[in-house]
Amino acid sequence: MIDDPALAASVQTELEKLQYTVMPMSEGGVLQKMFDEVPNLVIVDEDFRGGEGRLLALGIKEDVVLKYVPIILLVKNDTFFDDTDDGIDLYFRKDRQIRDLAFCAREIAGKTFNELDLNPLTRLPGTRSSILRIEGAVSADQAFSVCCIDLSDLSAFNSAYGDGRGDEIIVKVGHILQDILKNEGTKDDFVGHLGGDDFIVITTSNRSVQIAEEIIKQFDRVIPNFYDMNDRKQGYLLQRNKQGLLTQYPIMSLSVAIIQSDRTRPTEIAEIGRIGGDLKKYMKAMPGSCYISYQPHRGEEVLPTEEGSYLDVCFPSRMETVRVPALTGRTQKHVAFLNTILRLKKIKTVYQPIVDLATKQIGGYEALTRTLDDNFFSDPALLFSMARQASRVKELDKLCVDCALKTGQGIVADKKLFLNLNHETLLDSGLMKTLFSERGVIDFKSIVIEITEQSILRSFEKMRDALLELKEQGVSVAIDDVGGGAVSLRDVALLRPDYIKFDRSLIRQIDTNITKQQIVLSMILFAKGIRAKTTAEGIETREELETVKMCGVDLVQGYFLARPGPPFPALNI
User: Fold this and answer.
1) CATH code of domain 336-556
2) Architecture, CATH, for domain 5-112
3) Which residues is 195 bridged to in the sheet?
4) Residues 6+ apart with CB under 8 A from 291
5) What's the whole-model pTM score?
6) How far apart are CA 440 and CA 405, in angstroms?
7) For 394-412, what is each residue's pLDDT tens digit?
């Protein structure tokens, strides 16, 4: 895809010397042409079609079917790219010899040739065969379904255990798919391995949901066995992300995007790739293995976003289904969901009592965010994950704080109101000036801002300055999830918080775990040294309550004491 005639001729000449068949492209639908030909390699000039070359290349890499076709992007001499994770296989500077480009092309195409035909790891048909089977289904004038299967957090698993153990999971998924199609499918069903952790199943429309549910159930049953015992017990891996920050990655999950096609509205292969990619992005932020079954409607160019248009996300292992607003192909993932939440302010605040063990009275309440409509997915962690990926965390933070302050006006003056904030908001000095605009009769001294250990890592110096400004207003500071291993106690001490809230993993079953008790005891001594009160979250049993009380924890909260509710819940005990 090169517009410059001289450059195009030079590239074609050098590639033909290496016995490659070159297909120049300057007009027409690029994606459909690629589906028709399934090239071994694509070379794109960033100046293609008036400077749209890079966007076109990125669009190909976002397609669920074509993403494993390697791409070389030709860039100007003065073009600089960070070490991005955009999927482009090689950025080649145009001031280099074209002969070097030809040799690079041969090396890259050689590495991926097998994946486009037969995957060497799973021995399943690759991208080329998968496209041919989809084309055959489209032209057969009958109803069919394409199931796009993807894993979450495989890269974190590979970082922890090595690529070899990750490959074992890939192979296992391949075996699961083959066994299920053998038992649940028909003789004409197809399973392909597009590359990496992406698989595809082509089956009849009436069997697709049953097959997806069985895939998820079998995967969820076996995946914990691939983790070491300690990681399996705690339910996550602690690994550094791309920014170098310690992050908790849950046990791996699997998502299945089902694209239904019927005889009244045959689905084009390019549309299948686009919709499959969009749905998979949507599901990757969901906690747990899930599937979405989606059928495009006649005349519909993108996934619906009108008010009242929803997608049902199914979690077979948990036997539950949640309804979320549909997503467009034109917008960034989760924008439709967030637009609904933010525009219509579809949230509410519930309050969970925090009990002072010395007085046995409620000392304050933590404000927790929930969505108003039960049709929306109400997990706050998911909600903020969506906001972060759409770069709208600060908007959501502001909405949550406003709601908590407005509905919390009846709080007794001597009770504390704990509000959770993300680092993006704390570091925005302009937003922080108006953050408490709805506090009404609530005094600054009654407000406690909670931040997590991981927030501290984002920018320690700036975070310290931001927290100092809060404390100068009279606002107290709590560091949440302490003990998760993200930061050192030295960093916590430098911030001098008023409250330290222990990570739930430390409190869970602490009554039967002497090691956890010893850790909590040592952290209580540390907290006393910096004059901070300690809080044990997640108290779910009387035994846990009695144990943390024996250890000397100052404050407690959890379902055993009181569930979150409207202002202001009483204690269970």
Assistant:
1) 3.20.20.450
2) 3-Layer(aba) Sandwich (3.40)
3) 198
4) 209, 212, 213, 216, 255, 256, 257, 258, 283, 313, 314, 316
5) 0.53
6) 8
7) 999 999 999 999 999 999 9
